[in-house]
Amino acid sequence: MKSAKSAFHPRTKDWMLLPSLCGIGLFYLIPLVQSIFYAFSDGLYAARFVGGYNFRTLCEDPLFQRAVTNTLLFFLVGILALLAVSLYISLICVNGKFVWQPWALLLPIVVPVPCFASGWQLMWGNGGLVHRLLAFLPCKTVDFMQGVPAFWLMLLLYIIKNAGYISILLSGAIRVLPTEIQDSYRLDGNSEWVYVTRILLPQLRSTLFFCVITAVMNYFLLFRDMYALYGSAPPDTLYMLQHYMNRNFYRLNFPKLSAAALLTCLVIGAILAVGFCLGRRKYDVQ
């Protein structure tokens, strides 16, 4: 009996990709091209080409400067702190024998945003648990949800929600590394810090780069928590690029919105491209 042939011709299989390609073009490529057009025009109807005028006025806007400063500061401090905490947790998980750790570490990321925001408000807001405890002390109470403390609280929230997921990625990468290097190193020295910085981190370069990309994406998801806590009027220390883009969206200022979005994509894309090139370099352990 002859073997049954494939029911689809190879060219027929290629045509099955057409619905997906149409969806990508309709919902992604066309809006992207239109957004780029708005970034170099002066309006929606009867628009005319204005070159880099939108980018020049964008960089001169004090609100945009504040949003960029806060976003870069959050990126710099938040991602470094997140990677450090996640690496520490992953080392504990790899050396420990608790099977419940991965499940417990993923709990913060699956909690719905309204529930997390309500609990955060009950903990740190005016009249919250921390505020009531400080009222018994002979010191001035602090509004943790406003001003400079709000930035560090949001940074703490960012670490709590993402450290578990990142640490699981790092734990999996550490477990598959060959143990010969670690064993031979620990025969010569007993410094855990030197082992982590000189031996472990270079071997985790590609995984760390993937974790950085994940941390950047999860930062943009953090805007949901910011909006649930503060709405469209956050404190000055938490005024991010997403707030600036939302503000221009509600005012139908699409040229400035498109210019800000395009500039953000270009900068993040350039940073990730450089990191990708550096991550592909081979590293030889001395």
Note down, in words, how this protein is organized.
The chain is an all-alpha fold. It has a domain at 73-237: Orthogonal Bundle (MetI-like fold). Helix content is 73%, strand content 0%. It contains 15 helices and no strands. Helix 4 (62-95) packs parallel to helix 9 (147-175) and helix 7 crosses helix 13 (223-230). The longest helix has 34 residues, at 62-95.
In short:
The chain is mostly helical and 286 residues long.
What gyration radius follows from the Cα positions, in whole Å?
24 Å
Assembly state here? single chain
CATH superfamily of one domain, called what? MetI-like
Helix fraction, binned, reads over 70%
> What order do the SSEs take from the amino end to the carboxyl end, as H and E?
HHHHHHHHHHHHHHH
Low-confidence stretches: 282-286
